[in-house]
Amino acid sequence: MNVLIVVVTLFVLTAFAAQSGYEGNKVYRLKPTGKKQLEMLANLRNEKNLDFWTPLRRDEHPVDVMVNFKEEKWLTDLLKKNNITYDTLIDDVDSAVLEEHERQIFFPPTKQGRISFIKYHRHEEINAYLSRLAKDYPNLVSIQNIGKSYEGRDLDVIQISTNSSAGKPVIFIDAGIHAREWIAPAVALYAINQLVENKDNANLLEKVDWNILPVLNPDGYEYTHSTLLQRFWRKTRSQGNKCIGADANRNFDFHWAEIGSSSDECDDTYHGKHAFSEIEAIALSNYISQNKNRIKLYLTLHSFGQLILYPWGYTSELPRDNEELLSLGEAVAESIKNVSGTNYIVGSSTNILYAAAGGSDDWAKGVAGVELSYTIELPGGGLLGFDLPTWKILGVAKETWEGLKTFCKHISEKFN
Ligand SMILES: *[C@@H]1O[C@H](CO)[C@@H](O)[C@H](O)[C@H]1NC(C)=O
Ligand SMILES: *[C@@H]1O[C@H](CO)[C@@H](O)[C@H](O)[C@H]1NC(C)=O
Ligand SMILES: *[C@@H]1O[C@H](CO)[C@@H](O)[C@H](O)[C@H]1NC(C)=O
Ligand SMILES: [Zn+2]
């Protein structure tokens, strides 16, 4: 009997492994020191066989990189040759994915139109929640469809406003432009939940409106959920010649393709055939353009790295209003730290990380003129980093929410 169970289990595990893109993959935590080692790694960022799970920082912070088993020796030889020390963080990515999947399916389906913060929701559940809020709170909530994804999923923006004809300043938030960063949509959902369903937060709606798009890249997001062994998909799902998808956060039409992206469509950081080749990036940019006079804060949620970043991503030059961007970012970081001790680093993208052009935050500021524009890299956690264990979702959502309140305070004061 026991033998049978073992055999069946092995069979199931083998069946999973057999379909896997991650079989034998490992994740290393690299610990570069000195400019030379950092530059060497910066040049590897768009390397096909390496997947940088955390952005490479300039301050010698460790960086987590997934490597295909076929390239493992190549990588370790290279690291040794360059004297870069490293640890093995995940020895077998496949079984880590499987474990995470088991935790995820452990929770029963949520009732139509409801959400929780004990699991990661599917795109349909998220949009059903938005619709339910619009129905239950008609004086507060409306849904604007801003287009469809490549595969035809609705890009729905929830507009939360106590008086939509008053023309109040707007805080716009999106999440999930990178498919695998599951905590980002969850945090956006928590903000929606707090703004609409928690009356104690009514003051946050007095002077501003909130418009939130919780999943900007729903095709990719669904792909990481439904295709068990594509958990680390990052791009959209548009059809290319050889490979699928582009990195929508390298696809915006501002210094597009100048630096920090790839022209190989099979790479994770592929910037697309041309600027705005991706329909999701077009939909977002149209929406922001149409509302650019009212949007006073643009916020895009990513994971992971505990970073609050602002433009520019394409150059190390600082924006004119660096002082305001920095001090607001630091105030937000402080209010997050106050909740739970979580530390964020704050600064302009290119000064914290290595330059990468074509991001939505650069475009929002540089083209649409939304001066206060930020990317938040939320915390990682658990073995996989991209997926905090489900029991940690609420903690991250709550601490980030305190940061959002600080943003709101600044916008409310500055624009009234
Ligand atoms: C690595 O370290 C060794 C011994 O300290 C040194 O001889 C070598 O030049 C270093 N290599 C690089 C690429 O820095
Ligand atoms: C909504 O805003 C408009 C325009 O400012 C104003 O005339 C109206 O009185 C407001 N409605 C409410 C209910 O506050
Ligand atoms: C930190 O928390 C304390 C008490 O909870 C509060 O009085 C203080 O204003 C908070 N500081 C920030 C920056 O949020
Ligand atoms: Zn991201």
Explain what the structure shows.
The longest helix is centred in the last third of the chain and has 22 residues, at 393-414. The termini are far apart. The protein has an eight-stranded mixed β-sheet with strand order 5-6-8-7-9-12-10-11, with helices on both faces. A four-stranded antiparallel β-sheet has the order 2-3-1-4, covered by helices on one side. The chain has helices at 2-18, 34-42, 72-81, 93-105, 123-136, 183-197, 218-226, 279-290, 322-340, 349-352, 360-366, 393-414, and strands at 26-31, 50-52, 63-67, 85-90, 141-148, 154-160, 170-175, 209-213, 295-303, 307-310, 345-348, 372-378. It is built from twelve helices and twelve strands. It is globular. The model is unreliable at 3-20 (pLDDT under 50). It binds 2-acetamido-2-deoxy-beta-D-glucopyranose (3 copies) and zinc ion. Zinc ion binds next to loops.
Summarize this, please?
Residues 119-411 form the Peptidase M14 domain. Its cofactor is Zn(2+). With 416 residues, this protein is an alpha/beta fold.
Give the topology:
Layout: H1 2-18, E1 26-31, H2 34-42, E2 50-52, E3 63-67, H3 72-81, E4 85-90, H4 93-105, H5 123-136, E5 141-148, E6 154-160, E7 170-175, H6 183-197, E8 209-213, H7 218-226, H8 279-290, E9 295-303, E10 307-310, H9 322-340, E11 345-348, H10 349-352, H11 360-366, E12 372-378, H12 393-414
Parallel strand pairs: 7-8, 7-9, 9-12, 10-11
Antiparallel strand pairs: 1-3, 1-4, 2-3, 5-6, 6-8, 10-12
The structure holds 2-acetamido-2-deoxy-beta-D-glucopyranose (3 copies) and zinc ion.
